[in-house]
Request: fold
Amino acid sequence: MISTKYRCIFVAVPKTGSTSIRKVVGWPFKHHQNLMELKEEIPEYAYNNLWLPKRIELLLPGARKRYTEKIFHSYFKFGFVRNPWDRVVSLYNRNEGIKMREQMSFEEFAEWIELSSDTSVHPTPHKYQLDWFKDHSGQVAADYIGKFETLEKDWELICNRLRISQPLPHENHNDKNQRHYTEYYTNKTQRLIAEKFKEDIEYFGYEFGK
Reply:
């Protein structure tokens, strides 16, 4: 999501509280775009939202690239991630998208899932949550990556940065997921997820059960 109102770019990683945040900052043209895909959308977004003289300027040689770089570097780029073990349970129990709990057991799902957003209506090619925030050279290009586990505290920091006064609504609460995520796992599936999402676990310091 690109917001000219708040001068920010929000990377909506599925199952990290993104629906609640989009209620505040706005809804995207397209769903499930990573940071580099959002960067490519800047000229189109600007063309649809700027006054006519500014639109005409974007048609000049080199103007689109200069405008894209200016907005990308000046806007606050942020998103959230989630403990991979917890997130896999949430993906399994999700009410939207493809309902995998109706098609296989959790153990089968843990063995099957390779892409971290593969139960979305429009699957994405990301394996790690960190992939959503990297540039084409593999470097993290976001200004801030919060955690679902500290959503309220991290959202307060973002609000201060963007001068947002609106509290965060609680959207897409999943009543199916009443048990703590650790209760879904065997030793085997716990190790399986640890191996599959090793980069996220190491980069963000996640641990099973914490």
Notes: The chain has one domain: 2-204. The CA atoms of residues 42 and 68 lie 6 Å apart.
